[in-house]
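Revision sheet: structure tokens.
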Amino acid sequence: MPFQIVRLELSESGEVIARRPLQPVFELRDDASALAEFDAGRCEGECGYDAERDCWWARDSQGRTFRFVVEQAEVEGDIAA
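Predicted:
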């Protein structure tokens, strides 16, 4: 199955308030993880790796907190055999 990065925006209390799947979809989890790290670094604030949740996190210049999580992507349509 392919993988995608999902950007989660967190409230001040740490609850997920927005979920946005990002493009593109990756064949390899390692490729998606590398881009998740890159996306976290582009937030113009602090960022790092959360080993407990296996994701990257970031704070932007406006104080918003995000997680960049790699998940298996849902495949639309039928796959011909």
